[in-house]
């Protein structure tokens, strides 16, 4: 399976980079992982709704440049479906069985994802109704993907 994670925003914290590197290393047993880090647009304080839409559209256009036609796109969105770790594991298995072996997870910037990206998505996933920094969320996503593979393979990890 090929997994691409497209994320808006630069990762600056060493401890988060270290965690991502660790999960990327662990995932090499299960998939080919590609992480695409895209620059975020600067959002002015008190940005208008129109300015926020323009920012999301610019980020969205950059995201869409990295999405290939053969990718099954999973957008991370507060309006998406919430799954348990077991359900995410089963979901990834079902994707592979039906031939969707190029999964692309998309994490938006601080304003979320543009409508164009959401429309391109094949599935919308929500981890929580809480808001997380996108830098931290990248680690959480990789951990859940890793956990999903471990569950699928009946390996000890999930409790």
TrEMBL record:
Pfam families: SPOUT_MTase. Homodimer. It is found in: Cytoplasm. Its EC number is 2.1.1.177. Coiled coil: none annotated. It is an enzyme of class 2 (transferase). This is Ribosomal RNA large subunit methyltransferase H. Keywords: Cytoplasm, Methyltransferase, rRNA processing, S-adenosyl-L-methionine, Transferase. The keyword Ribosomal protein does not apply. It comes from the Bacteria. Belongs to the RNA methyltransferase RlmH family. InterPro entries: Alpha/beta_knot_MTases, RlmH-like, tRNA_m1G_MTases_N. GO terms for cellular component: cytoplasm. The gene is rlmH. GO terms for molecular function: rRNA (pseudouridine-N3-)-methyltransferase activity. Specifically methylates the pseudouridine at position 1915 (m3Psi1915) in 23S rRNA. S-adenosyl-L-methionine binds at residues 76, 108, 127-132. It comes from Clostridium bornimense. It catalyses: pseudouridine(1915) in 23S rRNA + S-adenosyl-L-methionine = N(3)-methylpseudouridine(1915) in 23S rRNA + S-adenosyl-L-homocysteine + H(+).
């Amino acid at each position: 399976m090929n997994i691409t994670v497209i994320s808006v925003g630069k990762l600056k914290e060493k401890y988060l980079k270290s965690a991502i590197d660790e999960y990327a290393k662990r995932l090499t047993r299960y998939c080919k992982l590609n992480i695409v880090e895209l620059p975020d647009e600067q959002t002015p304080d008190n940005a208008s709704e129109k300015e926020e839409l323009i920012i999301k559209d610019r980020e969205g256009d950059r995201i869409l440049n990295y999405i290939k036609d053969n990718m099954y796109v999973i957008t991370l969105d507060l309006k998406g479906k919430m799954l348990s770790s077991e359900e995410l594991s089963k979901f990834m298995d079902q994707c592979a069985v039906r031939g969707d072996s190029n999964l692309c997870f998309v994490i938006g910037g601080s304003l979320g994802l543009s409508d164009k990206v959401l429309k391109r998505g094949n599935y919308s996933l929500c981890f929580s109704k809480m808001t997380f920094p996108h830098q931290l969320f990248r680690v959480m996503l990789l951990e859940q993907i890793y956990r999903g593979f471990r569950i699928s393979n009946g390996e000890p990890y999930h409790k």
